[in-house]
Design brief:
The protein has 204 residues and is α+β, with helices and mostly antiparallel strands. 30% of the residues lie in helices and 16% in strands. The protein is globular and about 65 Å long.
C-alpha cells in the first residue's frame, strides 16, 4: 500500500487515540484562524487528490467553518405571523447540508475562482470545518490542461450556488442507477411534471 492508502485507512478510524488527538489539536488551530482563509496545502492530501486536487498553479485550497446544528428561524422576538404551521422557530432543519453551505460561502468570498469540490477536516462542539478545492479559470496552467479546463467554461460559474458540486447534487437527490429513475430531468418535481403534462403540438 502507498502512503495515501495508509492515510485513508487512518481516517476510517476516527475514534482511535491517534486520530482523536490529531483532530483535537487541528480543531484548536482552526479555531484561532479566520472563518474563511487560504490553506497553504491540503490537510488531507489523499482525500483532496481523490476529489480532483493537483498541486499545480491555478489550484488552491480554502478552509472554512460553518456553525453546526439546525437553522433557527430569523424572526424578531420569535414572532412568526400567519398560520400555526409557520409558527416554529427552533426545531427547523436546513434543506441542504452544512458542507454545501461551506462551499457556497467560499464561492461567494472568492468570486473569481471556481469551486471544484470539498471535504471534511474536523469538527468541534460549535463548528464543522471543511476544505474547499478552488480552481482559477483564468490561469493558463488550468486553461491548457485538458483534464481540468472544462471548468473554465462559463456554464460553471458559481456551480456551488446551483447545486452542481458533489455535495450539492447529494442534497438534490440526484444520482445514477435504478434508485434514481424518478429524478431524471433535474428533479423529482420536474420529472413528475414532464410525465404528467399533456403536450398537444400543432403538427403531431
Amino acid at each position: 500500500m502507498g502512503a495515501y492508502k495508509y492515510m485513508e485507512e487512518l481516517y476510517k478510524k476516527k475514534q482511535s487515540d491517534l486520530m482523536r488527538f490529531l483532530l483535537r489539536v487541528r480543531c484548536w488551530q482552526f479555531r484561532q484562524l479566520a472563518a474563511i482563509h487560504r490553506a497553504s496545502r491540503p490537510t488531507r492530501p489523499d482525500k483532496a487528490r481523490r476529489l480532483g486536487y493537483k498541486k499545480k498553479q491555478g489550484v488552491c485550497i480554502y478552509r472554512t467553518r460553518v456553525k453546526r446544528g439546525g437553522r433557527k428561524r430569523q424572526a424578531d422576538k420569535g414572532i412568526c405571523y400567519g398560520k400555526p404551521k409557520t409558527a416554529g422557530v427552533n426545531q427547523l432543519k436546513f434543506q441542504r447540508s452544512i458542507q454545501s453551505v461551506a462551499e457556497e460561502r467560499v464561492g461567494r468570498a472568492c468570486g473569481g475562482l471556481r469551486v471544484l469540490n470539498s471535504y471534511w477536516v474536523g469538527q468541534d462542539a460549535m463548528y464543522k470545518y471543511y476544505e474547499v478545492i478552488c480552481v482559477d479559470p483564468a490561469h493558463n496552467a488550468v486553461r491548457r490542461d485538458p483534464r481540468i479546463n472544462w471548468i473554465c467554461n462559463a456554464v460553471h460559474k458559481h456551480r456551488e450556488l446551483r447545486g452542481l458540486t458533489s455535495a450539492g447534487r447529494k442534497n438534490r437527490g440526484i444520482g445514477k442507477g435504478h434508485n434514481y429513475s424518478k429524478v431524471i430531468g433535474s428533479s423529482r418535481r420536474a420529472n413528475w411534471k414532464r410525465r404528467n403534462t399533456l403536450s398537444l403540438r400543432r403538427y403531431r
